[in-house]
Amino acid sequence: MARTDSSSKSRTWAQNIGLVLPGGGARCAYQVGVLKGLAELMPRRSPNPFRVISGTSAGAINAVVLATRARLLRHGVADLERVWGNFRTEQVFRCDAGTMVKSSLHWLAALVLGGLGVGNPRSLLDNEPLEQLLSRNIRFDAVGHAIDKGYLDALAVTAASYDSARSMTFFEGCEGLESWARVRRRGKPAELGLPHLMASVAAPLVFPPVLIGQEYFGDGAMRQATPLSPAVRLGAERLLIIGCRDEEPGTGEQSGDAGVFPSFGRIAGYMLDTLITDGLASDLERLTRINLMLNQMPDRRMDGEGGPLRFIDALIILPSRDVRDVALRYMHELPRPVRLLMRGLGALNYGGRQLISYLLFEAGYTRALIELGYEDAMARREELTTFMDGVPLEASTGISGWEDLSDEYSQRLPALKVPSTG
User: Fold this and answer.
1) Strands 52-56 and 154-161, sheet pairing
2) Would you place residue 106 in the very low, low, confident or very high pLDDT band (cuts 50, 70, 90)?
């Protein structure tokens, strides 16, 4: 079934598409640029074209804003561009000299004295400014309204429980959607609010955990081994995935840092990159293998005790340029206290650009990423509009935009042969 925009009868699009927005810190400005391009490819008064929107960490912020403005896609994207395009670090965490010195001394005292009891520091940084920004700009009750009006079937926000050690997807959706429980991951219905969003963006150690019910939660990228799963479980049969990292193979370090003992900043960037992006890579690899298997089945479907397996078409849009190199051009925009901290960590150099690319919440950088996302969407406009129209992807893997894995599994790994039941 297709839905037609009331302002134009010339454009239809599939009604079974889910949007997946993984985390990426400041890199998630790239997602806004891609969405801006998509909005321009659709009629001006088009509503949200995605039946399910799933977001994690900073990607959850973009997901929630789109859901609250689901009646008009361009309005939601404009809101995102206005915020991301004018970002300042002080809107995300307190970074004045006094706060930074006080925080450093607090941590030093806790380490030297073997702890301060109830006075132990809760996190490296105070993200109360981000909480206030989101509180002022997001009307969470609009999510339920969008669902009631039929502009959206479900919105999912994922966080990680420090108590149960599970990835938890909180979702708000239409009637009939069921919770799920799998190994180390669960999905449960909830009336989404600011605590769920703050929990999803609470990077471990960097920002404080958030109490929801009787459990403390942190960044949704932790333990999220299957970031595509929430959208599929909530009904999506096709996925548009907007990542924040160039996944071209063979892009090793090419600098004077090669062979040099890695700084703390470089290690921290590596850990953050692993936390945020490796789950998506693994899940796309898993989807590739499942799709190749289902390609051998009648109707490309298989029933099982855990529910049916369906062939899922997925279009992935990733930055066409290395966002770490983009960050290098704008790191001077960081507030001086933050630059001093990054210099102390050994992050204000080529090797530390990984960490900077996640933490550089400054307008020059975020605008550059928005522009890059827009350019990438326009460069793939035909492929993007065809996908949104519901045309099946030609690749046997059902995946486009993930060429290295697609080639590997199509050419090197034989498809699973399923015996005929005839």
Assistant:
1) parallel
2) low
Q: What angle do CA 399, 26, 167 make, to 5 degrees?
A: 60
CA 317 – CA 41 distance, rounded (Å)? 16
In whole angstroms, how large is the CA radius of gyration of the chain?
Answer: 22
Q: Cite the DSSP H helix spans in 47-160.
A: 58-68, 73-84, 97-112, 128-137, 141-148
d(CA 156, CA 190): 9
Q: Which residue has the higher pLDDT, 31 or 415?
A: 31
State the sign of the Cα–Cα–Cα–Cα dihedral 55, 195, 119, 115: negative
pLDDT at 86 > cutoff 80: yes
Give yes or no for a contact between 218 and 35, defined as CB atoms under 8 angstroms apart: no
Cα 324 from chain centre = 17
Residue 121: pLDDT band with limits 50, 70, 90:
low
Which residues make Cβ contacts (< 8 Å) with residue 234, sequence separation at least 6? 18, 52, 54, 153, 154, 156, 171, 173, 177, 187
239 DSSP β-pair partners: 18, 314
Q: For residues 220 and 185, give the distance between their C-alpha atoms in angstroms, rounded to a whole number.
A: 11
d(CA 231, CA 229): 6
Q: Is residue 120 exposed (0-12), middle (13-18) or buried (19+ Cβ within 10 Å)?
A: exposed
Cα separation of 325 and 327, whole Å?
A: 5
| H or E stretch at 232 | helix 229-233
Length of the chain in residues, anyone? 422
Find, among 290, 161, 191, the residue nearest to 232 by Cα: 290
Q: Find all residues with CB under 8 Å of 146, minimum gap 6, and list them.
A: 48, 67, 68, 70, 71, 152
Pull the structure tokens for residue 198.
């703050």
234 with 391: CB under 8 angstroms? no
pTM of the model: 0.88
Helices vs strands, H then E, count in the chain: 15, 15
